[in-house]
Design goal:
Length: 124
């Protein structure tokens, strides 16, 4: 499964950015799409994720500032980031998890893949 992210960049504190990601490949289902981030010297952490039924999960640090959305028909996920602050500076990775196609139209093995990452820099 390939995950192509776009929309990173530089912004001043208080500004907004929108990240987009498109999943492609041969998969049976894309159960969860989301965004993770990794700041220099830190571990990768969950930012937000959304299931194919629309259930959303957010990290406490971004709740009420970030909004995740997805288009199931297009296999895309977006992350609207508002009120950005320097602590949001990181490489953001798109994530997709689900099941590959098995024989015929059956469900195959699970997958949990990340895209290349896009850099978000917030200056004070």
């Amino acid at each position: 499964v390939q995950l192509q992210a776009s929309g990173g960049g530089s912004v001043q504190a208080g500004g907004s950015l929108r990240l987009s990601c498109a999943a492609s490949g041969s998969f049976h289902s894309l159960e969860v799409m989301g965004w993770y981030r990794q700041a220099p010297g830190s571990q990768r952490e969950l930012v937000a994720r959304i299931t194919n039924l629309g259930d959303e999960t957010y990290a406490t640090s971004v709740k009420d500032r970030f909004t995740i959305s997805r288009d199931n028909a297009k296999n895309t996920v977006d992350l609207q980031m508002n009120s950005l602050n320097p602590e949001d500076t990181a490489v953001y990775y798109c994530n997709g998890a689900g099941y590959l196609r098995g024989k015929g139209w059956s469900r195959g093995r699970s997958f949990n893949d990340f895209g290349q990452g896009t850099l978000v820099t917030v200056s004070s």
